[in-house]
Every structure is written in structure tokens, then in C-alpha cells.
Amino acid sequence: MLIRKGSDVRASEITDEKDYMDRRRFLGRVGGIGLAALAGPTLLGASLAGCDASAARADSMSGAGSEAGDAPPDDKLTPYEDVTTYNNFYEFGTDKSDPAANAKSFRTEPWTLEVAGLVAKPAKYHLEDFIRPYALEERIYRHRCVEGWSMVIPWLGFPMASVIKAAEPLSSAKYIQLTTLLDPKQMPGQRRRILDWPYTEALRLDEAMNPLAIFAVGLYGKMLPNQNGAPLRHVIPWKYGFKGAKSIVKITFTERQPATTWNVAAPNEYGFYANVNPEVDHPRWSQAKERRIGEFRRRPTLMFNGYGDQVASLYSGMDLRKNY
Amino acid sequence: MSEAAVRTQRGADAARTPDASTQRHRARTVRPPRWLKPLLFALCLVPAAWVIWALYSDFARVTSYLGANPITEAEHFTGKWTLRFLIVTLATTPLRRLTGWNWLARYRRMFGLFAFFYAALHLSMYVGVDMGFDFGDIGHDIVKHPYITIGMTAFLLLIPLAVTSTNAMVRRLGGARWRSLHRLVYVVAVLGVIHFWWAVKKDITEPLIYALVFGALFGARIIWLAGARRTGRTSS
User: Fold this and answer.
1) CATH number assigned to the domain covering A12-315
2) What ipTM was estimated for this complex?
3) CB-based contact A155:A6 (threshold 8 Å)
4) Domain assignment present for B117
5) Dist CA B113 CA A237 (whole Å)
6) Where are the domains of chain A?
7) Helix axes B36-60, B70-99, angle to 10 degrees
8) Which residues on chain A are in Cβ contact (under 8 Å) with B64?
9) β-strand partners of A289
């Protein structure tokens, strides 16, 4: 696993992704204020500035991933261009290139986020208020799509656990549901009933509390591009990509397991858990291997996408074939 | 279509009415220019040449002609061109009947062989480029994953059609047997669309369009066949 704060990142490790390196050097010179300025007079400016501040708190992360701090040499960052042009975001169309093309004018400001359900502190937030309390951290995660391809993405975000704690869930709360914006005017994909809109995803509360689970507001040190789920998405690196909801407008705490969009669409193909598992095939294709974007040969897929040390205990005693 | 088969077909058509006969006769005298066939041949090769070059370029020169996932894209590309050439092949006869452009029949065999060529290219992309000749994985795919099973079956069924496409084979089989063998192309088209349909994750718009086009081409034949039955002929 790769949880690294800005200060841990050695330039030599960061591939040839030039933009990113330039940004890093820039950041090194002028500090967080520079990044905030680059981000423009936007709602995230202040929070992005926190990114560097968080570097100082590297040790405050729970021990989960720190020991794995060295990036395996074969987990090179996927180029920014690929991360932002090859997307599954059906709200903007079903082709991989559709989101980048159709999300250009998507408006993420103002953005309201609702925390609801079984919590002591239900509330509606302006996004900037929602994000403000949290220091942004960089998390370099493998991203494995259920379709058999994968990427390595440097996200910018904060742990879901922090948000959950702040909301003070009631003891009856067992699940957390994430809901994507429903707005067919802005999201042309929602004009066709490809999926049951709005998109919803959900996790068991203990899964969401795992330190690896984050809300992301940026990638490659920049604000999250619209096609990647701006302004807020969640990222669960040990699960298939579709478990991450994009453009989230509502976080609901529930007692019962909520319905999740792909599970409703094809229950025999997409389970609630959707943990990356090379031994359990999708009914229509194998999950044993994956193609890392940019690579020629397929590579073996790792159990829990390589994050087993941190998350396997969440599923001890469970039949992962049944709970796919 | 073979010349022999064309002749049989024309004989059957000509027998219908004297009117139609003269019309066909006139149409038959239309000869396309000699350069048309080589031109069509070259055009049919363009998609293959492009995708091979783009795939090479994307990896060797880090271009992005095929997007972020070039191998998958090249597989989809060659698969769709296989279906397109099956459509062109199966559209030749209905178009000929509608327009009276009998000279179209000269190109049907070439189109059919290009369908086979693109199917072979599609399969090569899968076996060689995507799976890296890992026959363990490929075997697993064929056995476990129905869309691969179906696609592989469709390809195998195309082989006898390609092999018997020569004039000599038509003569050896005889027109009637040749034609009944080549009706396998309808089975291949159906399997090809199912293969596409099952490979798609959720949005079935595109395979549906292919299904409708094939449906129309099949429908035209059913209508003509029914018409032929009514007038007491059994030829298809």
C-alpha cells in the first residue's frame, strides 16, 4: 500500500509524469499557498493548501499502511492524461471517452452535501465547509476496474473515518450509503435508463472506517477533474472501481444494507462487497489478471488488490465466493 | 459468390417474367470499371492497416491513437469490422435485387473473405496480443466464459466458408450443396452479435444496432423466399 504524504515522495519515484513533477517542485518552493493560488479562487483552494500541512502529520495516520511506504517499482503512476480520459462515469455516457467530453461544463460550485440518517449530527453543508476541517493527504492507490484494467492514481483526500466520527453515528448505524447527484440536464447519461439513477454505493461502516477508505477531492495534486467525480468521490482501493461513487451529494447512515446500483442492475455479476479477488471470476470474464494501463502484458491481480494486510480481517470467516 | 452460383441465380431470376428478364439482361451489360475491384480491395484493407499501425505506434512511440487502453480498443475495433464486413457481404444480394446492379455479385466473395480476414485479425489480437499466447488462460476463457465460447465457435464456422470460396470448390461441391453450406453465414452472424452482446457490460445499444441490421438483411431474404414459394419456386 502506498500512503504517502508530500514530504515522502521522492522525485525519482514519480515516473515521468511531467506536469506532476513540475507541480511538486513548484510546491516545494512556494509551499501550500502556491498550490492554493494555482487552484484558483475556488472553494477547494483553502483545503488544498492544507495538503502540505498534512505532510507534517504523516505519523498521525494509523499504522495501517506506513510500513508499505516504499512503492513497488512496478507500480508506476498512470499518466495524468490516461487517468483523466479513460473513465467509467455512466452519468456522462458509457464510452470511456464520454466523461471527459461531456463533463466539461459540469458545475461543481455551489455544491451542497447532506449527511443524513442514523447520526447524531445530520446536516447540510456547503462543500467547502464540509471539507474544511480535514487536512488533505496524498494517497497513491492501485485502482482495479471490474472490467480487467487497472491504474495507479495519486489521490488527494481525507479518510472517510474522520467524516464518520464527526457525524457521530448512532449505535444502530451499520452501513454508510453514498449517493451521486441526479441532474439529467447536466448529466446526459442520466437521460437514458442505463442504470437506476441516481447512482448509489454503500459500505459496511467498519469497511468505511478502515484508514484506506478516503473521500477524494483531487488527484495529481490538482482539483478532481469533473470526469473523475468532482467535486467529491470516495475511493476504496481494495474494491473494484465501481464501488466508488462520484460527485457525491448525500451520505446516509443506515441500519440495513442499502441497495447499490450495479448490484441492482445485475445481481449475479456485481455483489455488494465487490472486493478485488483474482479467484472469483466475473460470470462473463476472468478476474485472475489485469492490464495495467500503459503496459503491454497482463499482470496477475492481487487479492484485495494487494491491500490484504490492511483489510482482510474485515472479512474473516466470510465466504468470499458467496459474498462477491 | 461464384460465377456458377451467380449463373444459377440469374437463371432463376430470369425465369420469373419476360419483363424482368430483359431488365436483368440490360443490367447485366453494365460492367464496372476494371479498377473498381482493386480499389475496393485496398479500401477494405484500410481499417486493418490503420489499427495495426496505431497499436504499434501507441506502444512504440507512446502515441494515443487508440486511447488509454489500446489493446482492448484494437480488439473491439477488429471485432466490429468483422461484423461490418458480414453486413456488407449479406447486403450484396438484397442490394442487387433492389437495384438490378448485378455486377455487385462480383464483389461478394471478396467481402466475405474480408469478414473472415477481420475475424482472424480479431482472434489474433485476442490470442497473441491480449492473452500473450497463454493457452492455459485462453482455454479457461473458452470453457468458462460463454461470450468467448460463442465467438470462437463463430470463427470456426467461418473457416469452411473461406476454404470453399474458390471456383474450384464450388464446382466440386456443386451449386446446391455449396449454397446450403454457405448458409452457415447466417449462423455466424447470429453468433457474432451474441458474442458482442454478451461482451458488453451494460449499454447494449451498439450490439442492438448490429442485431437490427442483420435482422433486416434476414428479413429481406425471408420475404423473398416467401414470395418465391408463392410463385411455386423453391430456390432461395
Assistant:
1) 3.90.420.10
2) 0.82
3) no
4) yes
5) 47
6) 12-315
7) 170
8) 81
9) A300
Does residue A279 belong to the interface with chain B, where contact is any CB pair within 8 Å?
A: no
CA–centroid distance for A164 within its chain: 16
| Span between the terminal Cα atoms of chain B, in Å | 14
Rg, chain A, Cα only: 18
Q: How far is B67 from chain A (nearest CA, A)?
A: 7
Per-residue pLDDT, averaged over B213-235, amounts to 86
Task: Name every chain B residue with its beta carbon within 8 A of the beta carbon of A195.
Answer: 202
B56, B134, B138, B202, best to mutate vs chain A, most A CBs in 10 Å: B202
Q: Chain A 38-57, CB below 8 Å of chain B: which residues?
A: none
Across chain B, mean pLDDT equals 89
Question: Contacts of residue A284 in chain B, CB cutoff 8 Å?
Answer: 145-147, 198-199
Q: What is the extent of the structural domain holding B32?
A: 3-230
Assess contact for B32 and B40: CB atoms under 8 A. no
pLDDT digits (tens, 9 = 90+) for B73-124: 999 999 999 999 999 999 999 999 999 999 999 999 999 999 999 999 999 9
**pLDDT at position B30:** 72
Residue A259 forms contact with B (CB below 8 Å):
no
Residue B74 located in a structural domain: yes
Q: How far apart are CA A188 and CA A95, in angstroms?
A: 12
Q: Residue A194 is nearest to which of B64, B199, B202, comparing CB atoms?
A: B202
- Look up residue A262 and give its three cell numbers: 450495479
Within 8 A of B127 by CB-CB distance, chain A residues are none
pLDDT, residue A30, reads 34
pTM higher than 0.95, yes or no? no
Asked if the Cβ–Cβ distance from B67 to A85 is below 8 Å, we say yes
Count the domains in chain B.
1
Asked if A149 and B71 come within 8 Å (Cβ–Cβ), the reply is: no
Q: What cell was used for A65?
A: 499502511
Contact A173, A230 (CB under 8 A): no
The whole-number average pLDDT for the span B169-195 is 96
A295 touches chain B (CB under 8 A): no
Q: What is the 3-state secondary structure (H, E, C) of chain A?
A: CEECCHHHCCHHHCCCCHHHHHHHHHHHHHCHHHHHHHHCCCCCHHHHHHHHHHHCCHHHCCCCCHHHCCCCCCCCCCCHHHHCCCCCCHHHCCCCCHHHHHCCCCCCCCCEEEEEECECCCEEEEHHHHHCCCCCEEEEEEEECCCCEEEEEEEEEEEHHHHHHHHCECCCCCEEEEEECCCCCCCHHHHCCCCCCCCEEEEEHHHHHCCCCEEEEEECCEECCHHHCCCCEEECCCECHHHCCCCEEEEEEECCCCCCHHHHHCCCCCCCCCECCCCCCECCECCCEEEECCCCCCEECCHHHHCHHHHHHHHCCCCCCCCC
Judged by a CB distance cut-off of 8 A, whether residue A96 touches chain B is: yes
Contact between chains at B131 and A298 (C-beta distance less than 8 A): yes
Q: Which of B88, B110, B111, B198 is nearest to B154 (CA)?
A: B198
Q: Is residue B160 part of a domain?
A: yes
Nearest Cα neighbor of B190 from B160, B211, B217, B216 is: B211
* The C-alpha cell that represents B29 in the structure block: 451489360
- Asked whether residue B235 is assigned to any structural domain, the reply reads no
